[in-house]
Amino acid sequence: MPNAEDLTAHSIDLRCRVHLGVMEIPVHYMRGGTSTGVVIWEPLLPKDEALRDELLRHLMGVPQAGEAPGNRQIAGLGRGPATSNKVFLARVEQTPAGPRLVSTLAQLASGHAGIDWSVNCGNMSSALPLWAFDSAMIEAPKKGACEVEIFNSNTGVVTLSRMWRGDDGRFALADIPGVLGAFPRVDLFLQDPVGSKTGVLLPTGAVVDEIEGHEVSCVDVAVPMVIAKAASFGKTGHESIAELEGDAAFMAELRKVWVAAGLKMKLRRRDGELMTRAEIERSETIPKVCIVGAPTEGGNITVRYFTPQTGHASMAVSGGCCLAAACLLPGSTAHQVAQRVSAPGATFGDIEVSIENPAGKLDATVTARCVEQRIEIQAAAYRRSTQILLRGHVPLYGASAALLDALIGAL
Which of 67, 144, 161, 170, by CA, is between 20 and 30 Å from 251? Predict the structure, then answer.
């Protein structure tokens, strides 16, 4: 971890400051995969949770209390949908194997003050190693593979990130669906991803449940997700997200399903208490929900994914890992419509699953085996790209006196 002199000398200033009489906090505004958000060095934030939450609301331009329907977030860095309302708090800890990142995701929403601390974001996680290298928190090898382990405190999931530097020192680039252009490539390997929130692969104890008149599979790999066949709702799985969101009857029916499924999965809040129906109805993060259908573009399955309140323009990588794993479960709703997916063998092996979505294809890899007709999943991997959109200091014009006092200690 850099000391104060390192931070002063480094071109990236990671200290709070007062400029023109206004307190400012350093941030990296970044894209990871198909999500955007802010990465902040966690030691800068107030220890008091209420003050920390106030700071994040200022940064993203959401109300400090209550609701603000139709809020466009023009006074902050958020962009409206859940995929662009993310803040990662990040720090580095030393382990016997070397430095690793510790990340905590705060998921905000444009229209209300609530902050969800219950899940990770696979897309934005891909921004973390570049943040660590850029801010000199971790020194990147001058060439070759640059591996960083990431521990997510929201879920307990450990991810191994891998980037590559060429002889010229530049990071290798990649194109991914939903992003125009090639940017630094990040491969992310989720270790032991089963039971991220519920502790088990099948939170309801069944491969298929009938919920609100629909057959669904409730699977927890990287993120808890409710998977339904599109045909059950009179859909194909090839509709545009705008078309689906514009179908009020469909959205109401889908909402009934994921709320009831969330209760059946016994999802819990961060404090360990079971989520109530009202909390699941408001949740911006869990359970995820999707409808699936047969592929038409050479992939293995087609999906339309919801986060859950809004449709996703592509496919979240955590959800992609979960869906890919579900394709391996005989009898699941995903397995019923998936095509040409290899079955796990008696020893762990990598199985590729290509997921068609509105932006193209998300290719996921599941390391799995079959033991006594039971599927075991060791890891799940996906490829993303990342970029730094902007780095600098954000002025906190409306900060409370208590928040200012707390930040003065970080000067």
Answer: 67
Flag whether pLDDT at 3 surpasses 60. Answer: no
Residue 43 sits in a domain whose CATH number is: 3.10.310.10
How confident is the model over 96-155, as pLDDT tens digits? 989 999 999 999 999 999 999 988 898 999 999 999 999 999 999 999 999 999 999 998
Identify whether residues 171 and 26 lie together within a single domain: yes
- DSSP type of residue 276: P
Total domains, the chain = 2
Tokens matching residue 207: 């491969």
Give yes or no: residues 234 and 164 share one domain: no
Q: What is the pLDDT of residues 71-92, one digit of tens each?
A: 999 999 999 888 999 999 999 9
CA dihedral 284, 287, 293, 299 (to 10 degrees): 80
284-305 pLDDT, tens digit each: 889 999 999 999 999 999 999 9
Distance between start and end Cα atoms, the chain: 17
Secondary structure, 3-state, 338-393: CCCCCCCCCCCEEEEEEEEECCEEEEEEEEEEEECCEEEEEEEEEEEEEEEEEEEE
- The verdict on 42 and 101 lying in the same domain is yes
- Cβ atoms of 358 and 304 closer than 8 Å: yes
Same domain, 246 and 216: yes
Residues 40, 167, single domain; the answer is yes
Cα–Cα distances in angstroms (integers) from residue 41 to residues 169, 186, 295, in the given order: 25, 21, 42
Beta bridge partners of 147: 162
Q: Cα(70)–Cα(110) distance, rounded to whole angstroms? A: 8
Query: pTM of this prediction?
Result: 0.71
pLDDT of residue 122: 87
Give me the percent of the chain exceeding a pLDDT of 90. Answer: 82
- 266 lies in which domain range? 209-371
Query: Do 140 and 49 share a structural domain?
Result: yes
Which tops the pLDDT comparison, 411 or 225? Answer: 225
Task: Indicate whether 39 belongs to any domain.
Answer: yes
Distance CA 78, CA 87 (A): 10
Other Cβ atoms closer than 10 A to 72: 12
Q: Where are the beta strands (DSSP E) in 110-233?
A: 112-116, 144-152, 158-165, 173-174, 183-191, 209-211, 214-221, 223-229
The verdict on residue 197 lying in a domain is: no
Dist CA 86 CA 242 (whole Å): 22
Residue 257 located in a structural domain: yes
Question: Residue 8 pLDDT more than 50?
Answer: no
